[in-house]
Amino acid sequence: MDLDRFDRQLLNLMQDDAGRTAEQLAEHVALSPSAIQRRLRRLREQGVIEREIAIVDPKHAGRPGFFIVSLQLERERPEQLNQLRRWLAAQAHIQQAFYVTGEVDFVLVVTAPDTESYDALMARMVAENPNVSRFTTHVALGVVKRGLAIPVPPLEAG
């Protein structure tokens, strides 16, 4: 799908605050509110906008801890990789999971209410996924930046 300049503006604005009304978006994009609604519907239908979520302040959710985890696998057989991917995707406390190149195979962002809950999750992961040979944990001492926005650059004049 080709994104025009209006689509690109809308995507950046929606990633900043998806709760804005079409009227509020129209203040920033040179389109009518009805044109904005049509574009947003099309962007959703075509899968450009996958979903819209609320970002919760951790202070109001019991101050969970954030853990950055590196996983190493014994072997990278397709069936074992797929099983691990499904397992990771099904865990609510695993916010993000990346299959990566380099010395480790996966990097995870995990949130848990405390270290005991984190330890229990990791013990289950190892028990239910015997292909995981090792994991390393980094505990986040503070959050400098947290988000999922993907910058959508404007169209270059041409």
UniProtKB/TrEMBL annotation:
One of its GO terms (biological process) is response to amino acid. InterPro entries: AsnC-type_HTH_dom, Dimeric_a/b-barrel, Tscrpt_reg_AsnC-like, Tscrpt_reg_AsnC/Lrp_C, Tscrpt_reg_HTH_AsnC-type_CS, WH-like_DNA-bd_sf, WH_DNA-bd_sf. GO terms for cellular component: cytosol. SUPFAM superfamilies: Dimeric alpha+beta barrel (SSF54909), Winged helix' DNA-binding domain (SSF46785). One of its GO terms (molecular function) is sequence-specific DNA binding. Signal peptide: none annotated. Keywords: DNA-binding, Transcription, Transcription regulation. Pfam families: AsnC_trans_reg (PF01037), HTH_24 (PF13412). It comes from the Bacteria. Residues 3-64 form the HTH asnC-type domain. Transmembrane segments: none annotated. PANTHER family: LEUCINE-RESPONSIVE REGULATORY PROTEIN, TRANSCRIPTIONAL REGULATOR AZLB. This is AsnC family transcriptional regulator. It comes from Marilutibacter maris.
